[in-house]
Amino acid sequence: MTQSQVRISIVDKNRTEGMKHEVKGAVKEVTGKVTGNHAKEAAGNIEKNAGKVQKEVGKAADKARDTDRHH
């Protein structure tokens, strides 16, 4: 395994879960828009934005872990 492969496999769980929620929320949001279901659209928007936040938390954790390893 190369160093980059190892690094990719050690991505913080928040980062991957955040991406999943971001995509799932975007799909809900579009579905709500297309069907005129404002509640689903709003719920999708909330989930998408929560996913973005969770993904950023994961990125910060990855960065902190990587910084800690190099010091």
Shape estimate: rod-shaped
Major β-sheet annotation:
none
- DSSP strand tally: 0
Give the SSE order as H and E letters.
HHH
Multimerization state: single chain
Folded structure, characterized:
The chain has 71 residues and is mostly helical. It has one domain. It is 87% helix and 0% strand. It has three helices and no strands. The protein has helices at residues 3-9, 13-35, 38-69. α2 (13-35) runs antiparallel to α3. The longest helix is centred in the C-terminal third of the chain and has 32 residues, at 38-69. The two termini are 23 Å apart. The model has no long low-confidence stretch (mean pLDDT 87).
List the helices and strands and how they pair.
Layout: H1 3-9, H2 13-35, H3 38-69
Helix pairs in contact: 2-3
Summarize the structure.
This protein has helices at 3-9, 13-35, 38-69. It is mainly alpha-helical and 71 residues long.
Q: Keyphrases for this structure?
A:
71 residues; mainly alpha; 87% helix
